[in-house]
Structure formats: structure tokens, C-alpha cells
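Issue 218. Parser rejects a valid record. Input:
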Amino acid sequence: MKVLVTGAAGFIGSTLSHKLLDRGDTVRGLDNLNDYYDVTLKDARLARLTSRADFSFSKSDISDKDAVQEVFAEFRPDRVVHLAAQAGVRYSLENPHAYIEANVTGFLNILENVRHQGTEHLVFASTSSVYGANTNMPFSVHDGVDHPVSLYAATKKSNELMAHTYAHLFGTPCTGLRFFTVYGPWGRPDMALFLFTRKILAGEPIDVFNNGHHTRDFTYVDDIVEGVIRTLDKPAMPSEDWDSNSPDPATAAVPYALYNIGSNHPVQLSRYIEVLEETLGVKAKKNLLPLQPGDVPDTYANVDDLIRDHQYHPSTPIETGISEFVKWYKKYYEIDDVAHNLR
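Output the parser choked on:
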């Protein structure tokens, strides 16, 4: 297939692009390479992709309507995986306009081009953050998500609503995927595992919010990518269970589907840090802090629908995933274990 991957220089997007190329797909990456975090890391991810046959790249911003239209017209993708977004809960308190431009206007541009090009299937990234103030665990796609606690979550909820509208009005097959705390090699420097590893190795204290008591359904990046590919290969169809007298958020009379992709095994942040300490062979110095505005105390994914429809259950334990991340981190930053241990 010809697959357009937006956010291809990102953490998940670059990993996904490699997997698609490995199986023989032709991939066009689209990314604006912004400076939300270290651009050299994005460039390094991209360099690994551009060296491969059947990969091409467009440096474009999804909020630029004409640029997006040009990419679609030239590449004419069979299917689209939309991962480009302004990410981060805490940053949405500082720069809310960036979230509207990328996550709302940008998503509209993707939907319009998918519609007009007759693309077979749009798979787009949502987030566990949409569950917001909901504390009914595990989070199910059949639960209502009308109480977001961050603008980031609100924009992702808007994506789900917009996609359903396009599926209803134009028959555009759309599948939304709520990712749960993704981690692994080539990860984002603004996320906990990356921050903790850098500071622990530098002998600096780490900020541990909510005193380390909150839990997260940490999900290894390869598990996320496998879920994306499985859903991509099976375009959304109208649900046989739809009942307009009793609407279920996870069913639809139109080609629209929604899934959680999470490990289905929440881990307390304090345990996550312990595994990292064991892997690094270094104890962390900790600044214990309260829960931050916009954060939720716990996440826990119900993946029953993913198992039922795609016969898939993410399964990588954090001990394996953190070990793989640390191996990558030390290689990428050329950290010598012997030299480090002698300091």
C-alpha cells in the first residue's frame, strides 16, 4: 500500500514508518520538524528513514491547508495514519493556541484531503487523556469522555467527533486510537522515562509528581505500532451493535471505530522508577511534588474491543521495555558504562 504517515519524524511515527517499510509498503512521511523538543533527535530519526527505499518525505505543516493538499495530490495515498499533533498536557497550559492550530485546524486539513482523495482508511491518534475526570477503571471506549481536564485532551476529543462527522457525511472510514503512555527507544525527551534517565545519569534529582503514587498504563512503542498496523489493515465498518435509542460512544452506524491501545496493566510511577534504577544501576535523587494541573491520577486501558476485532493484546512488560530504552539511550548518546561507573 501507499501510506501517508503524518508526524513521521516523531517517536511513534518513525517507528511505524520502519515497520510499514519492512513489510513492503511505500511510505510518504510528513512532518514540520518543529522545535517543541530537540530537533536533532527528529533529524536523526528521519535520517534513518530517508536512507531506505520506498520512503519519501515532505517537510510540511498540517495547519497549512495548501501544503497538505499538495502532498495528497502528489502522493495519492491509499491509507493515512495521522500522528502529527501538538502533544503534551502541561505545555497546553502555556501555549493553548498551538493546540488549536495543530490538533484542530491541522486535523480538519487531513480530513478534507482524505475525503476528496477518496482515501480508503484514516487511522488517527487520540489519547488516554480524553478520559479526564473519569475514575471508573479500567477506562473503556464505551465510557463517556465529556469531562477533559486539559486543553490537549479537549482537542483530541474534538478529533474523534470530527472524524465521526466525516464518516457520517461522506462515508470516510475513520479509526481513532487512544494511546496510553507510550515509551521506548527513540522516545520523546519531554516524557518521564527520557527525563528520568538523563537526570539520573547526570546525578541530578528527578521531579516525581504526586509523590510517585499515581499509576500509568505504560505501553511499549512496538506494541502501539502493532496495534496501529492491525487497525490500519482493517478499515472501519458500521457497527452491528449501534442503537440510536441508546447511543454507545464506541459504536456507530457509519464507518467509524474507536480503540484503546494500552498494556492493560497499570504500574505505579514509583515502581517504574525502581525498574529504571535497577536497569541503570544507579539510585535516583527525587524531588517529591504534588500532582500537576491537567494530569490525571491514574490510567488503565480496557482493550477488550481491540482483542475482539483485531485479535491483539499489547504485552511487553516494563522490565523489557525500559531495558530496551536504556540500551538505545546509551548507544545514541555514546555513554560508556565503564567510564560512567568510575565517576
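Fixed in the parser; the record now loads. The first helix runs from residue 11 to 22.
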